[in-house]
Design a protein that fits this description.
The protein is of the alpha/beta class. The protein folds into 2 domains: 67 residues, no CATH class; 237 residues, Aldolase class I (TIM Barrel, Alpha-Beta Barrel). It contains 13 helices and 10 strands. It has a 10-stranded mixed beta sheet with strand order 1-2-3-4-5-6-7-8-9-10. A hairpin with an 8-residue loop joins strand 9 and strand 10. The N and C termini lie far apart (64 Å). Bound molecules: iron/sulfur cluster (SF4). Iron/sulfur cluster binds next to loops.
Length: 326
């Protein structure tokens, strides 16, 4: 009798993430000189999905994917203009899990968990209220403010939540008549495309809300057919998928990488939406690209690609009513 073997679930796959620097160093065949540069203990620890680890070149630290995830001693460089709350989120909090920065939309901090830990993350020092798993006060605030038309699920990464938790949350948001749009800010599928499972697709397909997905990819090597197949299930349900990137030194601050990233995305019906100037978060100063260089890259991109394939180069400034075009 044939025995059918079920494919692993996304939760099982996530258990294979690299979280110990020594195991990753061994997997990548790093030498002693290279491992000496790794920051061994930190509050925001290593967390790298296996899928991305397999895309990293071995025996070097000079890899655009590795640089985004490997804690390095360079993070300890003192730079007083890089702070714990670079975009002023504390002020924008109207409850511990709800940010109201811009007119018409609110951002719900659904979880502190992510599929991966990006070293340049502007929320790497965010004081998450982790113990509370329900969103009653936040949903009440949304219910009582009829100007809110869109709810953004963020975190952490909202796809870290179980399907049951998302189903319940999305249904409660869908019950608020003035909310018409639901947006996901997620990097999860880049690390674990299997997260877009059939149960999740059904949840999205059955919501009355218009769903937008904003994924986050910085380098064309993060992409691949496995990712596109998984996102395509959502596109078939009418979900619009956008991508946001962060301009990062040594990762994507060259024209060929940006061109390839944008072109590959649009070929899959994914709109390159934003290229963010790095938020000046403590520990990430070694990733900063000067604005003048970023502008030159954008100018070159505009010459190479159609307008819809060129992201808007933006910067978030605390207190501004929208992201400012650089
Ligand atoms: S996945 Fe997003 S929220 Fe999580 S660490 Fe990376 S940038 Fe930050």
């Amino acid at each position: 009798m044939a025995i059918s073997v079920l494919p692993p679930t996304w939760r099982q796959i996530q258990k294979n993430n690299f979280t110990k620097w020594a195991e990753l160093a061994n997997f990548l065949e790093l030498n002693d000189e290279q491992t000496a540069k790794i920051l061994k203990k930190c509050r925001f620890p290593l967390n790298l999905p296996y899928r991305l680890a397999t895309k990293i070149e071995k025996s070097t630290l000079n890899d655009p994917i590795l640089k985004q995830f490997l804690p390095l001693t360079a993070e300890e460089l003192e730079n007083t203009s890089f702070t714990n709350d670079p975009v002023g989120e504390k002020k924008a909090l109207c409850s511990p899990k709800l940010l109201h920065k811009y007119h018409g939309r609110v951002l719900l901090v659904t979880t502190s968990s992510c599929a991966m830990h990006c070293r340049y993350c502007f929320r790497r020092h965010f004081d998450y209220e982790v113990e509370r798993k329900v969103f009653t006060p936040e949903l009440d605030k949304i219910r009582n403010d009829s100007t809110v038309k869109e709810v953004i699920l963020s975190g952490g990464d909202p796809l870290s939540l179980s399907n049951d938790a998302l189903r319940s949350l999305i249904s409660q948001i869908g019950d608020i008549p003035h909310v018409t749009k639901l947006r996901f800010h997620t990097r999860f599928p880049i690390g674990i495309p299997e997260r877009i499972d059939s149960e999740f697709v059904d949840i999205i397909a059955n919501s009355r809300l218009k769903v937008w997905f904003v994924i986050h990819s910085n380098h064309p090597r993060e992409l691949g057919q496995d990712l596109f197949n998984s996102l395509n299930q959502l596109q078939k349900e009418g979900v619009v998928i956008l991508n946001q990137s962060v301009l990062l030194a040594g990762v994507n601050d060259d024209i060929e990488t940006l061109r390839q990233l944008c072109e590959t995305l649009v070929d899959e019906g994914i709109v390159p939406y934003y290229l963010h100037q790095l938020d000046r978060v403590a520990g990430a100063s070694h990733f900063e690209v000067p604005v003048e260089e970023g502008k030159k890259l954008l100018e070159q991109l505009k010459r190479l690609l159609p307008g819809y394939a060129v992201p808007r180069y933006v910067k978030e400034i605390a207190g501004e009513p929208y992201k400012v075009e650089v």
